[in-house]
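Quick one - first record:
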Amino acid sequence: MPYPSLIARLAASLLQTLPGAQAHQRLSPALRFPPHLPMPDQRKARQSAVLLLLYPSIDAQWHIALMQRNPNSRHHAAQISLPGGGIEPQDADLNATALRETAEEFGIDTGSIQVLGALSPIYIPVSNAAYSPLWAIAHNAPILYPTRAK
């Protein structure tokens, strides 16, 4: 396994108290919640997950798998994104959601992917979704067969 100390430090840091909503609010653009619109009821948001898939490449550098969303999608057209989406009935939890979506969107076997932990959930108003970003590692560089995200 490459760089075991990096992986151990990342996993340990995910066990600490995370800054969560306060950091999101401080770093969000001013128009994220326009003052002239009612504040959305985040309790009704769709529970979703994304995967920050960390993997070593042939050049021994760490990479994170990203994709470009379909330019014709309803939300987030042509944006660069992480693999992920909404929880489905067959998903045991948000870890399963993130792994399923990653398998669907990159065409990879997620059996060898190790989920290290979660960052603070973040609400995305335009899609009315509460996303749980999960850090994971593939110990070997996966071969990615990206599909166009919806």
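second record:
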Amino acid sequence: MKINHAHHSVPRDPKLSRISRGTFVLTGVVTIALAGCVSQRAAPPPRVMPQPAPMARPAPAPLVQGPTDWRDRPLTAGDWSYRTLASGSIARFSDSTGIGLAAITCNLSQRIVTVSRSAPNPTVGPQASVPLTLVTTAQQHPFNAVVAANPGQFGPSLVVSFAVRDATLDDLAFSRGRFAIEANGQPTLILPAWEEVGRVIEDCR
């Protein structure tokens, strides 16, 4: 009689199989989770240095410019006066304290009209004269003025003389409201063209 030695396998417990599979799956999940934690660990944010607050700068003050046209500038403070002289007549412009600034004089015997302006410290040029300009609303009249001691009865002055029919005198008399006397080294005089100016000129004609 032939004995059949069959191989008898030991049956596996299904519960143990399920536990083994569960353990393997759990181990994989934990491993992936740990890997995710490691990979998702964010780098520290860059350090932000505090910025100084910007300093407030005051707005620049607007530049205040005076009028460039002499006709828009204020008149020189003062007043004209008129009086007769033994030699003719004079119109004198003085400030509020009575100090003379300019004068127009008629010398009747010589038929000459002089225009003078104060110049306490005149800057005399090489020809012993000082550039002076009479500015009217009609035009500018440049001259070389001479330095005189006291023609307008107010001390050292710059003087320009005219024959009575010189057209410059008409420009002074009929200048619209004002005329100016400019001279090197001296403040500009902007004078009202009042009747005293024309009266002296007519006295010599």
